[in-house]
Write the structure tokens for this entry.
Amino acid sequence: MKTKLDRIAEIAKKEPKEKFTSLAHLINEEMLIQCHNEISGNKATGIDKVTKAKYGEELKSNVKALVTKLKSKSYRPQPAKRVNIPKPGTNKTRPLGVLAYEDKLLQRGIAKILNSIYEQDFLDFSYGFRPNRNCHGALKHLNIILEHRKTNYVVDADIEGFFDNVGHEWIMEFIAHRISDPSLKQLIKRTLKAGYMEHEIMHKTEEGTTQGGLISPILANLYLHYALDVWFEKAVKPKCKGQAYMVRYADDFVCCFQYKNDANKFYGALQKRLNKFNLSVSTEKTKIITFGRFAEEKCGREGRKKPETFDFLGFTHYCSKSQRGKFRVKRRTSRKKYKTALLNMKEWIRNNRTTPTPKLMKELNAKLRGHYQFYGITDNSRISNFNNDTKLLLFKWLNRRSQKSSFDWDKFNLFLTKHEVLKPKVYVNIYDTEDIIGNVT
């Protein structure tokens, strides 16, 4: 199966205008069993209440029956189970769709096919949900643009409710650029129209793509590739009088310009462009700011203390200097993400404070390690703050194991010598750019 997908990828790369006419047959028993083996067994179940273990008891016969339904075009995806996940620190929730198990298998198979084709078309400044690309790569890419290119203005843009407003007709039109297999296209369309169940009520989906769906990341990239990336590269950049760059991770993107007039024109054109594709920018969260090596000097002339900052991928970017006095962009954990992470840590410690100490500390350090691995990036001192705040939370909730206080500070420090809290560590060097340096043009 890997050989077949590699061959498709090779053709897609060699022939940018090639349309693939026969793809649905690739979703066979071999692929579906492979997808089954790749799916995590501890995920929540959809409306079918089928787990990976239960489906695997009769794996071959289940997969064979599924392939028969696909060949006869009688397969109908089931509605996703809508779950609203609370956003810590707010009264808002984020909708998440949990798929039925066979739909997970099928969507994973479709995603493999789409990725093998469109990964060859996606542009180098796109990083979200792509093989061998991650948030840190996007941050390194952006850092090169901010520090080593002629960047004086940044357009910090935010697409409002992206996953809820993706147009189905536009998705199918974009897919048609590369795929003319009617069977696969019909399957994707049925997946988009499957709907969702919430409080035992069925809801149709006339637009949008399910957050949590295995096919959603590739469809999101595909949508923004044609709606935004290609437009920026082919229509915006050639008309700019100065340098212009974009870095995008899923629906989160930043654009950098040499001249303010170019930035203003882009911002005006961006709203019209996104409106065409059923999308819109959040006017409250989208802004043009002065940023770069001359930003501090310009702020001084205008009577402002320091340049504005912007958030991207959970980090606040700000203008600063190196120890030698040269311009540098630095990053710290954004206030919003820091608050969310600390609230999550508070809730976890509170709920697990009666857990036996060795297990509690092992799991606590695992959580800290995950935080450091993402936020432990060059110049981010807030990982040390997070470590200190976690210790304070630990002290508070261990003292509430019973009505009587367990520790004073001296005893707590003795406790930490025996049960050490994982120390913060920088995992990502923002200047180690060997993996992405060739992508910045």
User: Anything to note?
Assistant: Residues 93 and 273 are 29 Å apart (CA to CA).
